[in-house]
């Protein structure tokens, strides 16, 4: 098979809920209106997220507790281990922030998974994003340009798999060798004529991989 990588989106793909929804529902009811405006195109994705993450107003222990309460696909930790044991590298590629992703990885004891995302940090009761406009992966809309990351990986790997669930994932899906699509991403890729395999969970992805003989 040569060297290969599995790259997964985080919010809504690995996690069953987007972290921004957890914040809106718990601390920021005004976020419901903001969400509508964002979906209507009045906000860039990254501006919407920055506003939401700055509206938590809790100490860091509480925020970490909230992050750990985020429900994830139960099969993800063992799937990652199986990929790594079968000679694949696993990456997370997210237009959210590494701040909560790293806490989730730590919480589930997941090792050796590099995270490509917007840099985040805790300060003054909130989560802030540190966006570098000169970074090679910078995107005005998302903070990080996911397709640039996948393009770069394709120079290093013979085969790059990708999994995602929503609009930001439609761009890297065009570049990846094979995309597994959940939820809204399925319709978006259909409309754009981008090939994909529709799935609902990592258990299904693992089954497909076992049938193809990719996992040992």
Automatic annotation (TrEMBL):
Source organism superkingdom: Bacteria
Any one GO cellular component localisation term in the record: cytoplasm
InterPro entries named among the record's database cross-references: HAD-like_SerB, HAD-like_sf, HAD_hydro_PyrdxlP_Pase-like, HAD_sf, Pase_PHOSPHO-typ
Cofactor(s) of this protein: Mg(2+)
Keyword Metal-binding: yes
Pfam families in the cross-refs: Put_Phosphatase
GO terms classed as biological process: L-serine biosynthetic process
Keywords, in A-Z order: Hydrolase, Magnesium, Metal-binding
GO molecular function, one term: L-phosphoserine phosphatase activity
Protein family: Belongs to the HAD-like hydrolase superfamily. SerB family.
NCBIfam families per record: DKMTPPase-SF, HAD-SF-IB
Protein's name according to its UniProt entry: 2,3-diketo-5-methylthio-1-phosphopentane phosphatase
Annotated organism of origin: Guptibacillus hwajinpoensis
Lineage, highest ranks first: Bacteria, Bacillati, Bacillota, Bacilli, Bacillales
């Amino acid at each position: 098979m040569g060297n290969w990588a599995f790259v997964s989106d985080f919010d809504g793909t690995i996690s069953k809920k987007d972290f921004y929804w957890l914040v809106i529902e718990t601390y920021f009811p005004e976020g419901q209106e903001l969400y509508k405006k964002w979906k209507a195109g009045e906000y860039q994705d990254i501006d919407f997220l920055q506003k939401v993450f700055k509206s938590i107003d809790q100490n860091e222990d509480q925020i970490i507790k909230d992050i750990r309460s985020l429900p994830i696909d139960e099969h993800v930790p063992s799937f990652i281990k199986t990929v790594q044991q079968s000679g694949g590298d696993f990456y997370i590629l997210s237009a959210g922030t590494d701040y909560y992703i790293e806490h989730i990885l730590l919480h589930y004891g997941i090792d050796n998974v590099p995270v490509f995302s917007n840099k985040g940090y805790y300060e003054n009761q909130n989560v802030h994003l540190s966006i570098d406009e000169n970074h090679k992966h910078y995107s005005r809309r998302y903070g990080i340009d996911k397709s640039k990351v996948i393009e770069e990986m394709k120079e290093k790997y013979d085969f790059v798999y990708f999994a995602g669930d929503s609009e930001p994932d439609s761009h890297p899906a065009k570049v990846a060798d094979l995309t597994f699509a959940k939820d809204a991403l399925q319709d978006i890729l259909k409309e754009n004529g981008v090939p994909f395999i529709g799935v609902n969970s990592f258990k299904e992805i693992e089954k497909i991989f076992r049938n193809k003989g990719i996992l040992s």
